[in-house]
Prior knowledge:
Blueprint: H1 2-15, H2 20-28, E1 68-74, E2 80-86, H3 88-91, H4 125-132, H5 142-149
Amino acid sequence: MSNIFAKLNEHIREELGQPASLMRLLAEHPGIRVTLDPPRGSIAVASVVPWHKLGAEKTCPWDTARGGLLGWKMDALSNYGSFRLQRPEYAQIGRCETSAQWSCDISELHGFAASKSALNDFTNTDQMVKADSPALISAITREKLNENLAHRGIRIIRACQKLCV
């Protein structure tokens, strides 16, 4: 009789979003746990975790509302199928704010989407410039900065008509 109550309890907890069966499996078989090493970070856009998209609207064609999460679970016939869980707290996880006073050093940027350099080879912008474009940093002068910013390949500043030095 207690086995029926335990299974019912686990089912209810699963329906409420708690991975009860996974927790039970790990408790019964602690040897199946493995350590997952994080991937080596780089300045490539693919290595930046898109936290701002968690629960975002229309991440997939079948998404209908912000805060929706997709997952997999076993049904009553022991078949796996996808399911959708609506979590309002994820709809509010991020916000976008524009500040006219904000500034950053270019070396703090990550998530470059296009470059002639192999972006996955570098963990920061300084490494990339030192390896692939040493001529850009050979002399640190106002004239050299203006020359570099005037280069046709510098698109991050093209919208701005005056150089801020």
